[in-house]
Structure to design on (578 residues):
């Protein structure tokens, strides 16, 4: 059995500390509707962003190991914190399949999109402090100027379902006005990276503050595209006809398995909003890491 | 050596999942300035509020056990989630010293303060769903009507230091207007319990929304008073003269030891605001549970 035969039908593993990575999964389901997915939310130990790098690496390795147990053909670290500090360790540990984080595709897309080279990144305070986006952008465009701003409250707003309306917009103004609407004549970024998997949920409120001229890089979208390209390049994607053709007999349907390490009810309730389809608590399997 | 000799000089142990319990510690330091305190923030595993009751009980027992190792004379569970689901288990396990949670003193104070018997409780979603405040209030005043509202965003606002100003007030209005300023003529609670240790940080914004007639029960304050009364009743408090007299030779100064299970820097940075005095990262000892 060759590599393609062994792997094509295998699932794609996706993990995050909680529900945030479901925005990445949603983008993956849209890009790769015929694949099987196993998503793991390490809800017992969320959030990763406030934990030390050593702890996050340890958790990421455990999550990767658990997903490797499902025979995955590709591993997506759909968590900014785990991508920033754990990608190298996970890639080394799970060396026989591609391991893809969310930082590099987002940085790549921002560098391509920006004309001026002034790129803003909003993320959790841990991601900003760690500097992974800043490093990944400057590696690609050494002249780039990166303005990174922690926007921690967006996480709570997204989980609370307060993604639109006056509260979301006033919080967006609080974080983004100093960068995008300053009266000082300071240079304005032309590109904004949503450097946290929760933030695509607030895209409308963010857009209302930054205006239509700023390019918004949704790292969930860019990561999903990168996963598709990687699988296609390695000839590991499920082969399908054109998406708009009627389904031929025998073509495999995509599927989704949801795992969490705790609190399946909350995962289902909040995760449904992130995935944009209802999740029933009994669909969520509890596992130990 | 009798019980008093063995115990009076022993420290008081306080634990929480993170920095929130520092509002309780701050109130304890004010009520009992001559005592020694050991505070443990289980920052590696916060938040407890999104975890299952079984997990929280396990964590609470580990934290209690760790503090028992410091020879504490009293254990304060300065965390609503751990108090709600773990008080009984911890009291049973650490049976030789008083174990005091934050729920019962808050419920007691609310029942005493309310004239109408209509009491509002704001807390995290886990605390509200668990129903511990509702139960504790109705046990004391069976005719009481309890309106419990989850106000999850207050946690993020307090940690972000956005405790005053338009964002804090618009979030406060979001949660509290339906209860306190409804146009429907529905009965208005006369008492509001801040049922999360983070919420005293937002007392000004909350007061601005509910107005001056509503009695606000700060469960940090009420818990600290309850701890002092318990120690005095059991003759275990450090004996001191009147607080306003000059310090006599040999009177013991209070002291404070801060423990965390991860991320001492963040604990120090955010905790300093909660404790209302700067905490330097090197003051925070990392321990494993």
């Amino acid at each position: 059995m060759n590599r393609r035969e062994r792997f094509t039908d295998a699932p794609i593993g996706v993990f995050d500390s909680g529900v945030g990575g479901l925005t990445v999964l949603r983008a993956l389901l849209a890009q790769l509707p015929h694949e099987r997915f196993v998503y793991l939310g390490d809800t017992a130990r969320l959030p990763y962003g406030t934990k030390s790098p050593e702890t996050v690496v340890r958790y990421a390795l455990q999550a990767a190991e658990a997903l490797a147990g499902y025979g995955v053909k590709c591993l997506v670290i759909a968590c900014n914190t785990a991508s920033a500090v754990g990608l190298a360790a996970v890639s080394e540990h799970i060396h026989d399949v591609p391991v893809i984080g969310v930082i590099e595709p987002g940085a790549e897309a921002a560098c391509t999109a920006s004309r001026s080279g002034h790129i803003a990144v909003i993320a959790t305070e841990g991601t900003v402090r760690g500097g992974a986006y800043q490093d990944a952008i400057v590696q690609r465009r050494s002249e780039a100027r990166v303005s990174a701003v922690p926007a921690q409250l967006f996480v709570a707003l997204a989980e609370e379902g307060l993604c639109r309306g006056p509260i979301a917009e006033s919080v967006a103004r609080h974080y983004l006005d100093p960068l995008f609407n300053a009266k000082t004549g300071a240079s304005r970024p032309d590109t904004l990276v949503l450097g946290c998997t929760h933030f695509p949920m607030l895209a409308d409120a963010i857009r209302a503050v930054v205006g239509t001229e700023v390019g918004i890089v949704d790292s969930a979208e860019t990561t999903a595209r990168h996963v598709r390209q990687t699988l296609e390049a390695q000839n590991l994607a499920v082969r399908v006809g054109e998406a708009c053709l009627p389904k031929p007999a025998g073509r495999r349907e995509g599927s989704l398995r949801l795992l969490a390490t705790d609190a399946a009810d909350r995962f289902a309730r909040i995760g449904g909003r992130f995935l944009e389809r209802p999740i029933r608590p009994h669909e969520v399997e509890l596992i130990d890491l």
Remarks:
- Residues 242-247 of chain B have pLDDT under 50 and may be disordered.
- DSSP finds twelve helices and ten strands in chain B.
- The two ends of chain B are 31 Å apart (CA to CA).
- The longest strand of chain B covers residues 36-41.
